[in-house]
Design brief:
191 residues; globular; 7 strands; 3-stranded antiparallel beta sheet; 2 domains; alpha+beta; 32% helix
Length: 191
Amino acid sequence: MRGSEAGWSSYFVGQREPARLDFWRYWVFNDPNWDFHSFDFDRDAAYADAQMAFLTANDPDLSRYSGLGGKLLIYQGWADPVVPPEDTIRYYETVVRSMGAEQATSAARLFLVPGMGHCSGGPGPNAFDGLSALDAWVTQGTSPSEIIATHTTKGAVDRSRPLCPYPQVARWKGSGSTDDAANFECVAPRR
């Protein structure tokens, strides 16, 4: 994704070996001497899927989880250099198609975080309290309609934005500082 370049050096650029190599060596192949140069995408990806099926967490049918009262708050940084945001969006859209919009949004919400890297950090507003939003959803039945995220520089908040439940986006109201979440609203995206 454009904008994820700042995080590439931690994972891809200038590294002696590809990131996450130990997953393949020790988990998939159980061989500390396995050489990534021997990787065959067709053969080895299928083998990993078979060997690591217990790690797969992409079943779109969350109805059993939802039926037990489960709530899933998913967040994804737009500047994530490891997990493409499009993959997370695709999974969430599959959940909605699988369960229907009403049941899906009563169990799961996706929040996309502008300028956030892999789980945190980045130039955008990337600090937020997802746990309190999840707690209110579970204990009070208040589904999150927005979560305020902040960015700090030298210990001071210099920007805030509402994170909106997908597919909504934060749109500036047309007046006030663009660094203040109060001047944004969550709305349907323009088509």
